[in-house]
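User: Fold this; tokens only.

Assistant: Input:
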Amino acid sequence: MALPLLPGNSFQRSLGKEKFHKSQHWGYCNKIAMLVAEDKPGIGGEPLHGQKLKPKYSVFPRGVGSDAPSWVAFDKQVLSFDAYFDEEVPEKNQELYRIRHCKIYFYLEDDTIQVVEPQVKNSGIPQGTIVRRHRIPLPPPNEDQFYTVDYFNINTEVIFYARRYKIVDCDQFTKIFLRKLGVRLNPPAYHPEDPYTRDRQKIADSMKPLRPYERCDTLRQFLEYDGHVLRFYCIWDDTESTFGDPRELILHYFLADDTIEIKEVIPVNSGRDALPLFLSRKKLPKYAPAGLYQPGAITDRTVLNVFGGLVGNKGRYILDNRKTGTVHQEFYKDSDLTIGAVINVWGRRVKLCDCDEFTKEYYMTKYGIKDFTPIPFKAPPPPKIEKKFPPYTGFGSEEDSLCSCLSLLPQPPQKDFKKFMEKDRKGLESNLLRFLAKFITDNPIDKDRQFIISYFLSDDTISVFETPQRNTGILGGKFLERSRIKKPGQELFKSEISEYFKAQDLFVGAKVCFHGHNFLLVDADEYAFNYMEKHADEFPMANISLILNKLKAIGEPSSREIKQIFAATDPEHSNVIEYNPFRNLMVNITGGKLSEHEIMTIGRHYSEQNEFEMDINFLLAVAQEQLKKNSFENFGQLSATFIYNDREKCGLLPHEKCRTICKSFRLPLADDLLRALLTMFEDGKEQVDYKKFVNGLNWRENPVPTFQTIKVPIEYEDDWSGQPPSLPVKRIKYLPLIEDVFGTEE
């Protein structure tokens, strides 16, 4: 069939010229000859007298649906018609004509049409798309117009490029759509059948091949059960044979092809070779070894030699339909496998003792079995022999000496590398707990000596540093090298590993002994307090919930007296008391059962915080110094990005949004410094004034002197901690404490 020609074809150009001369004519306008079209409207777009305009596209009634254009309103909406056409076959005597069925698709968005013929097996005809999708012109003499939706109906004929198509039916969507347009649908027409195809089908159905082949269709079983495997735990009792013992096996039954695979569970130090499989995957027959067949006795088909040896060495073989001499073999199926059943695995009696959850669910669903009581088949494990190690000799570390007893080739002791990577110093996280300590002694010279005990969380090592003091006669400096320290009172030469000091053993008020020196921990730095409170599940001395429960258990019998004592301590009824009276009260109430660290944790939790505003000029000076070192001057684009993200044009953006924008510009500022700066420019609703923020960072236009520093009272400085100065606990709000411990008064 001739398809529509592509642009540029000479035949199409000639047709175009003929159409051009037919639809155009010469006229005169102001005594000037001009080429005027027949469908050219008059002034104002009004049609001329007697002029009938021809619609170029399908016209749909207005007021129904939306006013969107057709390519939006009818996107992906197609009318489908069932049609056929007949084709002459002059070169064959078996058929004079051929009926070819096809589908006509009308695309509503642009009035394009596509004709597709379904594929027919062994037809010998190129099938598929007969007419590609495009607008098809009407047959002559209206070839200047195109097919629209008005030309389609059931039991009608359409002509596409001189080929006549008979529309016999359409789908449900097409029927509903045409009825909405007001089209009265004709009844469906008759689907004629191709006579040649019908005759060929009759011949094919009546044929009986001389050599029929048996076909065993297992595709459905494979597609349904592929990957589904039943698992049974089995035992093979081989104790009757010489040097035999019970053998533990695992049987896998593959539902996809009814094959069985058996693996052996080889115990440790059993002396057996670790074979990959006890039985390779195959169908397992039910017969005994005495019934084994020779190779070739069992075949898929039985073949008969018709001629035998009558005609020389020639032979003619056909399939034996009666299956004379066929060996019938039974194989194990899933119905034969149940808990307690004994199967014959090539002469070995294997007992099924248990199965997995999938197997239980399969048998419960298919066969309705609910009893899956396992049969005990495993021998009780032998008693575990406790390893006894020789005592420590004193040479090297205890861990290193122990490694020489664990293997013939001594290996160095393994360190906790994961803990080292998690607890090593990272940025501002030092993972270092530091405590202020003093000697526990009656010596007046040693009483005033102060030490800083540092505990490294990465490897549980401890170092002691003595702070130098003037006019004491004692040189400060390193007092104890960084190392792990054993707890006192342990036997030196023993088989067990000694206990070492851990982070939980160090807290304010604890008494520790390092190599014969007794220390009292009297204080800790701010990082140590914060770390212990953040990891309260590891440090019970900083766990406020445990401390309150302990305080409740101690003071529950005398709760009324405790409330009166707190009220007497606050005669002005300000609901707060100083820390030192609060500490003395807690010591008297608990009778010394709370440690100093626990009292400080309560005080920190219920303290009245005097918010200290960090000097914004200092932060801006540090930020501008960093920006200046990294040559960052892209403040104009940064401000434009803030304005672009400010949809409401109010000059404010959320804190996290501003931080994300700064990160996208790779602002060379530390994250904590950036957060502190954004906080300085926030209002009460965590909205940042980004204009002031950018102006403050602009070191070109608004430089900040670098000599300004944080204004902190001298009495609150903490030089030894290494962390930013923090205010000590001064005033305690005792009313929330009483409510949390003893509840509110009714």
